[in-house]
Write a structure and sequence with these properties.
It is an enzyme of class 2 (transferase). With about 400 residues, the chain is α+β, with helices and mostly antiparallel strands.
């Protein structure tokens, strides 16, 4: 059995590397040696070593609240983090404990990992899994991660494994002067895994990669809201800010396809995942995301597919809504006349700009209220973000 498990880990590592993760030798060695199946005891070992996110806890509405993240994005974020031997690392979001175990392997016996989670059940399970895996060097705490853990500060590295809307002051205060923090940062409803370092009087990104994580709860909960439209099919609409929403009217609007606009744009799925949603999020206050589980059929021609379901994006206003679909690889907009025309125009503009995404994206985080220059400025409670591209979009 040991040889079979080693083979599964090697197979997963090859897969992750093919997708751009585990470029750091320490990250690769951690994936090669840490037994993921022990952190997912309810799965068969072969299922545990698939490159998939595994939901481990859901709320009363069936929405996921904890998971073991997809190994590829875990590896990419660990590459971004650049932790080394002897480093002290703070992790926000314990999950199954697997990421903490990878970190403990990376920092070695001279390092230390502190993992914090708001959910006591998650903390208990992570501790059990870490013990079963024989993983030392990790402390798991039940607390609000927004406060960090000053007792063990300063940290050489801080990483969040939950989607964060803001940069908590406690994290920045508890990071060593030459430290680095990696967070799945919310940019008006879309997330990018961003690695920040100090740059004088503010923070600047060193890299940004597309990602998707469950949102952080507690003191730093953001304004994003999720509306369950159909419980039985897992049809969910996500808005970057809370607003009154008549879910029955939305369902009726989804059935209204009075306008159908062919755009002539034929991107690949990664360009869609990385580029178009970000384009809409920073430019368009009406944008939303829509997804359904594999039990549904409304989004059968949606542009984004995953084993667990499908997803698309669109615009929603008082005139109705419009969503993006795909026909023979070409993006097609369907819905009410005005939002459909506007959405198609955005897709054309994105195409004309060279389909920009995370490549070349720079994010500077300043104290709130700081006078800044920039076309794309996002104000949070604790920081003011300025987004720019090496090749300017728009």
């Amino acid at each position: 059995m040991g040889g079979e498990l080693n083979g599964l880990r090697e197979q997963l590592l090859r897969h992750v590397r093919e997708r751009g993760g585990a470029t750091d030798a320490l990250v690769a060695e951690a994936l090669r040696t840490v037994p993921r199946h022990i952190f997912l005891p309810d799965l068969r070992p072969d299922a545990a070593y698939r490159d998939e996110a595994i939901v481990t806890k859901r709320d009363q509405q069936g929405q996921p609240t904890s998971s073991s993240s997809q190994p590829t994005i875990m590896a990419i974020m660990l590459d971004q983090l650049g932790a080394g031997r002897g480093h002290r690392v703070l992790e926000i979001g314990a999950g199954t404990g697997f990421n903490a175990a990878l970190l403990a392997t990376i920092v070695g016996s001279r390092g230390r990992v502190t993992s914090i989670d708001l959910d006591a059940d998650v903390v208990d399970r992570a501790e059990e899994n870490l013990s079963a895996a024989g993983c030392a060097g990790v402390t798991v705490l039940n607390a609000d991660g927004a406060l960090g853990h000053p007792d063990k500060a300063p940290y050489d590295r801080i990483i969040a494994t939950v989607g964060v809307w803001d940069l908590a002051p406690a994290w920045l205060e508890q990071l060593a002067p030459d430290g680095r923090i990696v967070v799945p940062l919310d940019l008006r409803g879309v997330q990018r895994s961003v690695a920040f370092e100090r740059a004088g009087d503010h923070w600047t990104s060193r890299s940004a990669r597309p990602c998707g994580f469950m949102r952080m709860r507690g003191a730093l909960t953001g304004p994003e809201r999720v509306y369950v439209l159909e419980q039985e099919t897992g049809l969910v609409l996500t808005l970057p800010e809370a607003r009154e929403l008549d879910t029955d009217a939305v369902l009726d609007a989804l059935d209204d396809q009075e306008t159908r606009v062919r755009t002539g744009v034929v991107p690949d799925e990664f360009e869609l995942l990385d580029g178009l949603s970000l384009w809409l999020a920073v430019r368009e206050p009406r944008w939303f995301a829509l997804s359904e589980s594999d039990r549904g059929t409304r989004l059968s021609d949606a542009p984004l597919h995953a084993p667990e379901g499908r997803a698309t994006t669109g615009l929603l206003d008082d005139f109705g809504l419009a969503t993006v679909h795909v026909d023979g690889g070409e993006l097609v907009v369907v819905g009410a006349e005005q939002p459909a025309a506007d959405l198609a125009a955005h897709i054309t503009a994105w195409q004309d700009a060279g389909r920009p995404g995370s490549a070349g994206l720079r994010i500077d985080a300043h104290p709130p209220g700081t006078p800044v220059d920039g076309e794309y400025v996002l104000d949070k409670r604790c920081v003011r973000l300025v987004l720019s591209w090496e090749e300017r979009i728009g």
